[in-house]
Amino acid sequence: MTDSMVRAEAVHKRFGRLEVLKGINLEVKPGQVMCMLGPSGSGKSTFLRCINHLEKINAGRLYVDGELVGYRQSGDKLYELREDEVAKKRSEIGMVFQQFNLFPHMTALENVALAPIRVKGMSRSDARSRGEQLLQRVGLGDKLGTYPMALSGGQQQRVAIARALAMEPKLMLFDEPTSALDPELVGDVLDAMRQLARDGMTMIVVTHEMGFAREVADEVVFMDEGVVVESGPPAEVLGAPRHERTQAFLSKVL
Amino acid sequence: MATSKLTEERPTGRPEEIKAVPVRHPGRWLAAAIVLVVAASIVRAIVTNTGPNKGFEWVWVGHYLFDSRILHGVVATIYITFLSMLIGIILGVVAAIMRLSPNPIVSGASWLYIWFFRGTPLLVQILFWYNLQALFPTISLGIPFGPAFVHTHANSIITTLVAGLLALGLNEGAYMSEIVRAGIISVDEGQTQAAQSLGMSRLQIMRLIVLPQAMRVIIPPTGNETISMLKNTSLLSVISFGELLFAAQTIYDVNYKIIALLIVASIWYLAMTSVLYVGQYFIERRYGRGFSRAERATMRERWLALGGGRR
Fold it and tell me: B-side interface with A, Cβ within 8 Å?
C-alpha cells in the first residue's frame, strides 16, 4: 500500500442528493503522471479536490502516500483530523486551479514566497531566493515584482505552478490548468508541466489536452458520470479505446 | 459623389480625422444660467443680510472661529471620532467573522448584537449609556456568576467620555460588521481554496488573503461611516461631552450669537470632513493594489488626480 502515492478504493461523493462519484478505484505510483479525461460533470475535478480534502468523501477510502485523507483510523473507527492536521497534509500536496486563483494583492514573487514563510516557517530571504529560482524555472524571472492583473493568463498559471512547487509537494494536482487560457498561451503552461513530469514529480492532471496526455501521461483515466470507464496507458485508451463511451468522447474531442 | 471623391484622394493609409459641427445644447446653457442666478441670490442673502437679527454676523464668525474653547472642541471631536471608529472597526470585524461562523450560538450572538444596535436610535443609546449608573450602580470585574475581584461605582467609570465611546463605538460596530461581512463575501471562493491547498490555517487565510482583498470593498463605505461618525459626535452634546457643538453651545448660551457660532461649528465640520475625503482617496489607492492594470502612480499624478476628482 505504501508504494502508491494515491490510492482510491470505492470513493463515493454526494452533493445533497446528487451522487457525483460512484465508486472510484484507482492508483497512482510515485513519479507517475496520470491524466484524467472525460466530459464536464463527470466528477474529475471533484475527485481531484477530494485528494487534498477540499471536499469530504462520503464512502470508500482514499489514501495519499499510505495515509488516509482527512481521517485517522483506529481499530474500525474513523476519527476526523483536526484542522491543523488537515492543513499540514494539504501543504504536502500542490494544487493548480483552472482559474489560477493567484492572490491579486501580492506580486508574483510574494505569491510564491507566502506559504513557505507562513506555513513552513522559512526565512524571508530564503523564501524569496527560492521563489526567484522557481519563477525563473517557469520562465518568469523578469516578472518577480508584477501583480497578477498585469500578467497574461499563461503567465498567471505558471506563477500558480511555481507557488505550488514552493511548498516542495510530493504530489501535484492540476485541475484543468489550461482550460481558461487563450490557445496561444497553452503551450507555455504545458511546457512547464512537461518539465515537471521529466523531473519525476507525481502528477494528476485533469485536462482536455489530448496531445499532452498522449505524450506525458503514464496512465490515462477516462471518467463519465462518476465512474472510471476505462484506464490504461495512453496508447491504449487514446489510441484504441475499448469502451464505446470513450470512443464517442474521443471522436468529438480529437 | 463626395464619398468616392474622398476615397480617391486617400486611396491608402489612414482616413482624414472627422471634424464635424458639434450639436448645440441650449438646455445646458439654460440650466447653468438658472443655477448661477439661484446661487448668486443665496450668496447675496448670506453676505448682505441686515434684517432684524442683524444678519449672520460674519464679524462674530471670524471672532470665534479660532477661539480656544472652539479649538478644544475640534480636538475633542477628532479624538472621539478616531477612538469610536477604532472600536467600531474592531467590533465590526469580530462581529462579521462571528456572523460567518458555522457555530449557530456564535453567529446568533452576532446577529442579536447587530439587530439591537442597528434597531435603536443612536441618541437613545447615548442617553442609555450615560444613565447606566442608575441601572447598575456598581460594576464588578471577576468570574461570571463567581467571585468578583474589583468593585466600583458605575458613575466613576461611566464618564461622559466613556459613555460617548461606548455608545458611538458599539453602534458603529453593528454597522461596520455588515460592511465587513459584505467585503468578506465579495472575495472569490477560489482564493480561500488556493490558500487552503497551500496548507494555510483558517486564521492566516482570513488575515493574509481574505481581509486584505475585502478591504477594497470595505474602505469606501468605511470612509462614509467615518464622515457620519464625525458628525454624529455632535449628538454627545446632549450628555455635555465637550466636543465641537457643545463648545459652540456653551458660548452662545452666554452671548446668544447662535447663528454665528453654528456657522463656526459648520465651518470646522466641513474642514474636517474635507480632510477625510482626501485621506479616503489615498487609502483606497493603497488597497486597490493589484486590481488595476496601471502601474503605481507617481506622487505628482496623485496630486493631479486629486484635482481631477476621481470620485
Answer: 188, 190-191, 193-202, 204, 208-209, 212-213, 287, 289-293, 295
